[in-house]
Write a structure and sequence with these properties.
7-stranded parallel β-sheet, Rossmann fold, alpha/beta, two-stranded parallel ribbon, 15% strand, globular, 2 domains
Amino acid sequence: MSKVWFVTGSSRGLGRAFVEAALSRGDRVAATARDTSRLDGLVAAHGGVVLPLALDVTDRAAVHEAVRRAAEHFGRLDVVVNNAGYGLFGAVEELGERELRDQLETNLYGPLWVVQAALPRLRAQGGGHIVQISSVGGVTAMALGGGYHASKWALEALSESLAQEVAPFGIRVTLVEPGSFATDAMTSVVHAGADPLYQGLREQFAAFAKDLDAGDPAAAGRALLKIVDAENPPLRVFFGGQGHELLTQVYADRLRTWEAWQDLAVEAHGHVPGGPDGR
């Protein structure tokens, strides 16, 4: 039985790859983009199984209307993919209030509005799958990415709570954490004001980004099909080869640090194990 998808940020990059993968096997897709003319090729190739919807995910009322239209058009929603997003880069000291608020509006509040709009429909039909496109940068952080990381770390926490809340209704949640992929995502990046104090870090970041092994978006699309078809899909999954190796080291470092400071952690609690109070 074919699935019905609702995908934000469908006009390019991984979002486009997810839509194309779903359509390639006969699924139906409500594809959203701020500029629906960029979806014309999908409609021309696939016809009525694609419903193009104009959507800015920061507009809560528009999100609810788009979800309503998609559900009524196709009769149900099976897979909801929160893919729309962009990166804000700059040192924490450089971040402007408006820049950071805009980042959170898109990368955190946008998915929140979509989830809140979709949940009553998923619950009423007895299930569904919410896929949150996070990032390797949602579970670790590097210099100059504070604004972006803040949005993705918040999305991770929101989604982990969400997964526990909706599991009794047969609704599954997966956080996809991509590494580097060969998309034009960098064209939408916003850079905070450039303080010369951080120029050395910017040069290091540029060299690091240039050396990354960019993955194939089409392969990511095919991988997502396996996630949404899985009987027991994961809460978290890396897309790309960088995540596992990087995060294994990150978590090993965290565990070592917590262990090294465990005595102080107990001291901060104010009770000594085995002491007079029995704790």
